Amino acid sequence: MKKLLASLLFSACALTGLAHAGALDEAVKRGTLRVGMDPTYMPFEMTNKRGEIIGFEVDVLKAMAKAAGVKLELVSTGYDGIIPALLTDKFDIIGSGMTLTQERNLRINFSEPFIVVGQTLLIRKELQGEIKSYKDLNDGKYRITSKIGTTGEMVAKKLIGKAQYHGFDNEQEAVMDVVNGKADAFIYDAPYNVVAVNKAGAGKLVYLDEPFTYEPLAFGLKKGDYDSLNWINNFLHQIKADGSYDRIHAKWFKNTDWLKDME
């Protein structure tokens, strides 16, 4: 009987231990925080001339890894497969400019938002004055585009469903579709569009800068990993209170020096 009780107690302790072993605990044991991201989203995560992944979210993640006392490992992953990759342990957390949506939240947990953005439009210059908002594009004569698997695509299909839609695997291809006159508008997050209109627009795009959605961006974790969520949320509170967040934000959103380092 004593052996049976001891065995049951041991099993209970083991299960309890497993229940509390989250992504951050594993990262600390390993010495590395593995973050899945698709490095194509200016200025959050992107690849510079030297092949390095840089950006606003990357710097936030560097600060996170430093606070946890571990190294940061960025795992480049296609955006449309990034949630399945998390669920199959390819990395510890998602840090890829992901909008916290109710649909995604059914599959994974999210931290508190680290920034809020909204969808905006890049339109062909010839349509200036004709297209004043996303509502004007909701017509079968227009062709719109965005990146596959993003909220830009979701919004295009939901709010501009009458228009012809064609998505691309990355943002730049979609933008170039508008630049080359094959599409009429590109739907995407404001921080990306404000850079792309000058970097890739070639004078052929007009930026309609009024966001028409509310999109909180957050870090994604496996469901049930509440210890890691608690740690990340407290980390975000800390950097927003001590000025670290503001310095990182100013580097990428109030300064354009980083553009010189891009291809």
From TrEMBL:
Domain Solute-binding protein family 3/N-terminal: 32-256
InterPro entries per the UniProt record, alphabetical: Iontro_rcpt_C, SBP_3_CS, Solute-binding_3/MltF_N
Residues covered by the Ionotropic glutamate receptor C-terminal domain: 32-255
Pfam families: SBP_bac_3 (PF00497)
Cellular component terms per the entry's GO annotation: cell envelope; membrane
Keywords associated with the record: Signal
Location of the protein in the cell: Cell envelope
Signal peptide (from-to): 1-21
Molecular functions (GO terms): ligand-gated monoatomic ion channel activity
Keyword field contains Signal: yes
Keyword Signal: yes
Gene3D superfamilies per record: Periplasmic binding protein-like II (3.40.190.10)
Family named by the database record: Belongs to the bacterial solute-binding protein 3 family.
Protein name (Swiss-Prot/TrEMBL): Transporter substrate-binding domain-containing protein
Source organism phylogeny: Bacteria, Pseudomonadati, Pseudomonadota, Gammaproteobacteria, Pseudomonadales
